[in-house]
Write a structure and sequence with these properties.
By secondary structure, this protein is an alpha/beta fold. It has 27 helices and 23 strands. The strands form seven sheets. A ten-stranded mixed sheet has the order 3-1-4-5-8-9-13-12-11-10, with helices on both faces.
């Protein structure tokens, strides 16, 4: 039907993960669930595990969970893999539960960075954890990858530790740590792991496992792409580029008069010509060692022809290569060849070039060097041209280098199918079931519930949003599954997953509509160093054909037993408008009332620091969305997401965004505040105050372009969030004060053109929303419970929203007359409820 042809022509000179000879333990067969206890190992006939994966998530055997993908991939190679999920880290004993692994430990903090999982953007502790049964927080330690690695080393000191996952990927070099507000060392140093595998690691983990099984010492495994490790010195044969400083020019030679001889040039500078003096000294020494040549009569011989006073015939000069220089074998030099050594030295091969970043001590002390190191790192992310990186940690006897090999080669379509077609149980481990043997009660794992009926169709993202870490982890080369593999998974969900009602919640990935999109030219793709293919505009070399994705949508929804295919992943709307057919297909068949998109802001200042398109792209998509919704006779709404307090955002920008929200009738309940995740480009801006999308200089040439307005401090971050929730009376005092300070007191009033009113109602500090989860209960116990009851019926004439000005949902708990819905944001009574299609909870 659909051959697994790669969308990308990217050269993949890598050994296929399906070509290895299977390990001898394949004779034990495939486990329904990878074992988590000695009893489960015994039931499988195992006396030991070859590899033990330690994870901070509950064990869910599903292709959306990293520990399952790695575990099943290694199992398919013939290895016996055990899982230790969310162990008690207070001692090493829980890490000995499955015995000593024969080959290595695989350590990961889980699908999320443990610090982001534990703390909010305001550094407050979360009470929940979507990757834990019962949504209970506190089941994993802070900096889980480091803690787990230390306990593994304590449990069995001689077993190699291979670290992976998102937490390791984002900390592979010295990085700014938002929670401690300082620069921390590479996680390779702090965890004392033997190898770090960053990015999607199937290719690397398979190679490392087979080499360790062949008894190759882990210290010798230094040539695997997508790995980082500690070494003491640069090995022989490598060309090292020094990038430890900025604004440090090389030697500057004076401009010489081209009409002067070399000796005259030297005299003009008050010097002598060293080469001429050397030649004269040699000649004088030779003449002094012998007497002048004489003839038979004792008279001096005449000078040879051409060397006298014009006697003899003139001969032309013939230039020939110096055989001594041609035969000379010289190692690569980082500097130009010395004068007299012929033509310019040929550039060394990129695969043998390593860039030395500023050391940990340098970036810790100097934010400018931190910004420079971050910029270099992001320029070396294309697997086609990326060079190795090295960063020194420590000084003197404790000095060692963290060596980072180039990113892993992306998987082919056939390899993607191989990984996703493995025998996943698509369910949490039975140990998490409740007394009824189910996983949808008190022990429900929210993260699994969210992706329970979804299908991942691709990996990677070429958007390059500066606040996002997808590119640093998955890369920008899109890796797509074949159509047949995707359809097989939909059929498996239909036939095998308990509780399936006929609705697929998502066919997507990091982005909903990048399936099978890539560069038109393999040469350009392999050489490109742009951080984004869609900013500041869509690259002319990028294919934007959504035809293959439309075909999958149509084929999937035509399957027997499939009632609806929804798209829950975020949509890249600037790409979607390039294909009106795709927008029509999406809007009329795959939207469950609401579609979420992320313009993030309306103003050019912050958008340019995010590398996001202007609000005009959103307006064009909105027009198409409304047009096709009307043609289908459906009431559907867009859910735009915005970010507050992003680097480059002025107070005036947030004020203008609030005015845009009010003009368009949006009232945001959920507010996303910028979260400085490790290694993100926006985080480097936040820490350094410099725009790392441009060349980083110590002395700025264009301050408006190279500097970034940073939103620091709790009060200013609260102000930016308050602008997004301008409709909340609790925020009005803060907004009034800010508007007056900005000289915009004209926006304070009781008219429609004003942003906030002059009056201040009596509030209890709580906030009521049509969505229970978005409501904030009042902190005061003196307020009657009826006044602060979450989800109370709205008073006639008031506006309640689901998220951004959408009409309230029909919950069935109260009768709601009428089925029409007015314009989003317009005042409506409880009778103005959306139709059945708009009542679905957005994802």
């Amino acid at each position: 039907m659909n051959a697994p042809v790669d969308v990308s022509f990217f050269a993949r000179a890598a050994k296929p993960i399906t070509s290895y000879r299977k390990y001898w333990a394949q004779r034990f067969g495939t486990a329904k669930f990878l074992p988590t206890s000695r009893e489960e190992m015994a039931a499988l006939g195992w006396d030991s595990c070859d590899i033990i994966v330690v994870t901070g998530d509950a064990y869910v055997d599903h292709p959306s969970f990293g520990m399952s993908v790695i575990g099943r991939t290694l199992e398919a190679q013939g290895f016996r893999v055990g899982i230790i999920a969310q162990p008690d880290w207070q001692s090493a004993e829980p890490f000995r539960a499955l015995g000593k692994p024969n080959l290595f430990w695989g350590v990961t903090s889980g699908n999320m960075d443990s610090m982001i999982n534990r703390y909010t953007a305001d550094r407050k502790i979360r009470s929940d954890d979507a990757y834990t049964p019962g949504d209970v927080g506190g089941k994993r330690p802070d900096r889980a990858a480091i803690v787990y690695s230390q306990r593994c080393r304590e449990a069995f000191p001689d077993v190699p530790i291979v670290l992976g996952g998102i937490e390791g990927s984002l900390r592979r070099i010295a990085h700014y740590d938002y929670w401690s507000d300082k620069v921390r060392r590479s996680i390779v140093v702090d965890s004392k792991c033997d190898l770090l595998l960053y990015g999607n690691a199937e290719r690397a983990i398979v190679e490392v496992a087979h080499r360790l099984a062949a008894r190759e010492p882990v210290q010798q495994i230094t040539d695997v792409r997508g790995t980082a490790f500690v070494r003491r010195e640069t090995p022989e044969g490598w060309f090292e580029l020094d990038s430890t400083e900025v604004d440090q020019p090389g030697r500057v030679d004076a401009h010489l008069n081209p009409y002067l001889m070399v000796s005259e040039q030297a005299k003009a500078q008050g010097q002598t010509c060293a080469r001429e003096d050397e030649a004269n000294a040699v000649a004088d020494a030779a003449n002094a060692s012998r007497s002048p040549a004489t003839g038979d009569s004792g008279t001096p011989l005449p000078p040879p022809l051409g060397e006298g006073r014009g006697g003899g015939a003139a001969k032309p000069l013939v230039f020939v290569p110096n055989p001594a220089l041609a035969a000379k074998v010289a190692g690569p030099r980082p500097n130009p060849p010395p004068a007299g050594e012929g033509a310019k030295a040929k550039a060394p091969p990129r695969e043998k070039t390593v860039i030395r970043l500023p050391s940990y001590e340098q970036v810790k002390a100097d934010p400018i060097l931190y910004a420079h190191a971050n910029r270099v790192l992001h320029l070396e992310t294309n697997p086609g041209n990326a060079r190795a990186l090295v960063q020194a940690h420590g000084e003197g006897n404790t000095a060692r280098d963290v060596w980072i090999n180039p990113p892993p080669i992306p998987l082919t379509t056939a390899e993607m199918d191989y990984v996703f077609d493995l025998p996943y149980a698509r369910s949490p481990h039975p140990r998490y079931a409740d007394e009824h043997g189910r996983h949808d009660g008190a022990t429900k794992i929210p993260a699994w519930e969210m992706i329970r009926f979804s299908v991942n169709i691709m990996r990677g993202c070429f958007g390059g949003c500066t606040f996002c870490s997808i590119t640093e982890h998955e890369g920008r080369i899109i890796q797509s599954r074949s159509e047949d593999s995707i359809i097989r998974e939909v059929e498996d969900i239909r036939d095998k997953v308990e509780g399936f009602t006929g609705v697929i919640s998502d066919l997507g990935g990091p982005t909903a509509n990048m399936y099978r999109l890539g560069c038109r030219s393999p040469e350009i793709e392999a050489a490109c160093r742009k951080p984004s293919c869609v900013y500041p505009g869509i690259c002319p070399n990028l294919t934007t054909d959504h035809g293959p994705l439309i075909q999958i949508y149509r084929r999937a929804r035509a399957l027997r037993g499939i009632k609806k295919i929804l798209i829950g992943s975020g949509l890249r709307y600037d790409l979607a408008v390039k294909s009106p057919e795709y927008v029509k297909e999406l809007v009329q068949h795959h939207v469950g009332g609401y579609l979420k998109i992320a313009p993030e802001h309306t103003e050019e200042g912050p958008l340019s620091k995010m590398m996001k398109p202007g609000i005009g792209s959103y307006d064009r998509f909105k027009s198409m969305f409304e047009k096709y919704s009307a043609e289908a006779g459906k009431k559907q709404y867009l859910i735009p997401y915005f970010i507050a307090a992003h680097p480059g955002t002025r107070d005036e920008d947030m004020m203008n965004l609030a005015l845009w929200l009010k003009k368009n009738g949006f009232r945001a309940d959920q507010v996303q505040t910028f979260y400085p995740s490790p290694m993100a480009t926006a985080t480097a801006m936040y820490h350094s105050g410099r725009n790392t999308l441009t060349k980083v200089r110590r002395t700025m040439r264009d301050e408006a372009e190279e500097s970034v307005d940073i939103v620091r401090g709790e009060k200013r971050r609260r102000l930016h969030k308050a602008f997004l929730r301008y409709h909340d009376p609790n925020n009005w005092p803060l907004l009034r004060e800010a508007l007056k300070a900005m000289g915009r007191a004209d926006l304070i009033g009781n008219g429609k053109h004003h942003l906030i009113p002059t009056f201040q109602p009596a509030t209890d500090g709580g906030y009521q929303s049509a969505r229970r989860k978005n409501s904030t209960p009042a902190p005061s116990a003196s307020v009657p419970s009826s006044a602060r009851r979450v989800g109370a019926a709205p008073r006639p004439g008031t506006v309640l929203t689901q998220h951004t000005g959408l009409p309230p949902r029909e919950t069935g708990s109260r009768a709601m007359a009428g089925k029409g819905a007015g314009k989003p944001g317009a005042p409506r009574s409880p009778a103005a409820a959306p139709g059945p299609r708009a009542a679905r909870r957005p994802r």
